[in-house]
Fold this sequence. Notes:
By secondary structure, chain A is α+β, with helices and mostly antiparallel strands. Chain A is built from seven helices and twelve strands. In chain A, the strands form three sheets. Chain A has a six-stranded mixed sheet with strand order 2-12-11-4-7-8.
Amino acid sequence: MIRALAPLLIALALPVLAQDAAAPKPETIVSGLSQNRVAITADFDGSEILVYGAIKREFPVPEGRVDVIITVEGPSGPVTVRRKERVAGIWINNASVRVDSAPSFYAVATSGELATSLSATENIRHNITIDRVIRAVGIASEADASADFVHALVRVRSDEGRYRLLENKVQLTESTLFRTDVALPANLIEGTYKVRMFVLREGRVVAVQERFIGVRKAGLERLIFNLSREQPLAYGLISLVLAAFAGWAASAAFRFIRI
Amino acid sequence: MQLYLPIAEVSVDAFLLLGIGGIVGFLSGMFGVGGGFLITPLLLFIGVPPGVAVATGANQVVASSVSGVLAQLKRKAVDFRMGFVLLVAGVAGSIVGVRVFAWMEKLGQLDLFVQLCYVVFLGFIGATMFQESLRALLRAKGGKAPVRRAHTHSWVHRLPLKMKFRTSGLYISIIPPALVGAFVGFLAAIMGVGGGFILVPAMIYLLGMPTRVVIGTSLFQIIFVTGFTTVMHAVNSQTVDMMLALLLILGGVIGAQIGTRVGVKLKAELLRVLLAALVLAVAIRIGVDLLVQPAELFSVAPGVLP
């Protein structure tokens, strides 16, 4: 099998090799994360992820601006955005828009000002900023001014600390080494978190790398969560027994103290 | 100390939860109510999602009611037969309530519906009770003992299906207690409350039960209705947070024991005025939220519209 493929591989590699002789290899990213697993235990109070790395190139540091943008994206899911309106004197949810997919957490860290380091076309191509990440296709029919709803979604989640723009927070040394800290909030949701690293030159993306962080409930949290999903009836009954027992124990304990 | 709640998926201060449980437990022990009508709004206030707040609130009420009923049992102040009638009807009401709850959540009007229930029922009960108990308190101060007739006949006594309730000294139709029970079960499912604040006045004024057995009997019924509601929510919407419930319960049962002892020392009329004021305050607080323009008009809920 290998022998049969060998000529083919060589044939495929040849043009690449020929190209390499003409132009230098493009820049690549060598990176690491301080941890690629986050365990949500009972005392979980947020976590800080260190993203670090270097830009690998086989030629001198090029002229012009070099920037690094790092994004951390939590699991996505559909969300419903509702707007309150005054009806008959009271404020009730009156209009709603469904957003097909919005990340539960999103952070963008940049080495410079976002507006100058990233061009609009590259943002559209790579979906870097949060409004690009939120896919809101075909929501226009559901309510008037649906753009308001998407803006509101970003605003509400930014206020909750779920969406963050960290400008000038990536340290870039000698246009080669970079590092940043991204704080994950305490109200994390389970799932796979995607870390994307972009190297940009003059606003254009020249290298991309992705890494993943697994966020899982652990220990007691895991046990309780799984039980509630897999054995809901047993879970409900256990909750009851615990409650009844606590009630009885307190009354018994106090009787004991009194006598 | 921050604690991550596995079902609510939020991180809250454990001591804050213990404190909330303790205060609510104290009040529930003092007044003989489950305290659900306080715990659900408080949980919403600290950022627990509404579904979890209601379902877990019901679980906490189970614990404080068990604690309370044991104290009442020793005083032989539980009318089991009446409790049983209320209970059977209550379970039926609870089934309907859980359905309505799920339906409202789909419509996106759950918050509004829960808030409206709070304002309407707490407001009505609070106002009525406040007026009545204040009058009673003033009368007691005046030195004239209120005339209490052992046997007042009203429309309640003309209904069929009569039954003897020996502990309460009543011979009445089971239809009014069944209706009251069903209604309370319905509210338990929707508001995460035991319904003591409705049961207690309904038993006194509607059924004519002696005050002595009212608290014990209402606690007895509340245990089962809220217990049933807890299981229903756990199965239907998986919104019972055991960790949250345990902390609330721990604070609650201790508070309830202290509250019961304080309550015994206070005058019954004064207790009722205080309870009425508390109920009214909660109703007004929630009502204001509905009337004042919120700072953020938009809200974000994960999940899809049907």
